[in-house]
Amino acid sequence: MEMSCAYTQCSCFTTWKEQTSSLRPLSAAQFPAMPQINVKKLNCNQKLRRLPTVALAQKTDTSTRNEDNSNVVLNEKSAKGSGTSARGRRLLKVREEKRKRDYDHKHNYPAWAKVLEDACRNDSELKAVLGDSIGNPELMRKKVEERVRQKGRSFQKSKSGSVVAFKVSFRDFNPLDSYIWFELYGSPSDRDVDLLGSIIQSWYVMGRLGAFNSSNLQLGNSSMEYDPLYDEDKGFKVMPSSFHDISDVEFQDNWGRVWVDLGTADFFSIDVLLNCLTVLSSEYLGIQQVVFGGRRMGDWEDGMTSPEYGFKSFKI
């Protein structure tokens, strides 16, 4: 019986050969257990073949781990290049916060805050009151409450002018020593006091500089259709005409007054003042009447200069 080299070298076959060498010769037909020897042969061959298989599996596992590590590195590099860096994450966070604010503004924004925000588009004064609180309901509420505390009863007073022209009257008016009285539609706010006081101050400054001098009206009496000629010598030699003095502008309730000494200024300075007050009354601050002269108008009380009783003034 011929056997392969691998079979003759097997340890199982060597042991069996030693045990059967002392017995009588047997034929091949007397080996019923030969399949067992084949099984052992196969087991040995399997053991021999298993070694490169395990090594190959270990090599494959190592290669797989190396590939996984390479994929992680590549994924990190691609993630950095795809906008998920620190800057990209910050941008994503900002966009997410903006999206949340927009959602809250659309679904959870109070109706009254929306009304105020829309009103600011056409009301510059309300916009100045709210300032940078627009979009923050709680801060908007605090701004409005603070404004109400400051303004008090005059908070809801109309700021528009009057569509009715004011009345003008004279009562023993002396240009060198007289009051000019202004009757308003309500107690003036600080803004109204500054507005009317600034107009009177500007009028006085112009009069003090000799602006109201009818002796030198060269351009007023000439045609502007062609380039007019101006006589500088005549304008320089004309007799000066200027205001002499003026008091501060005072207010009690809805009345205001200012004492004036027009000096050598001409009376058309009064026309200039009335022209200014006409536009002021129609556009910004309603005026009922203007009175030139007189010592007492309405409920005016001399000597009452306390703000607790509604007294206000504009320093000139």
Automatic annotation (TrEMBL):
Pfam families: DUF3531 (PF12049)
Region (Disordered): 57-88
Full protein name: DUF3531 domain-containing protein
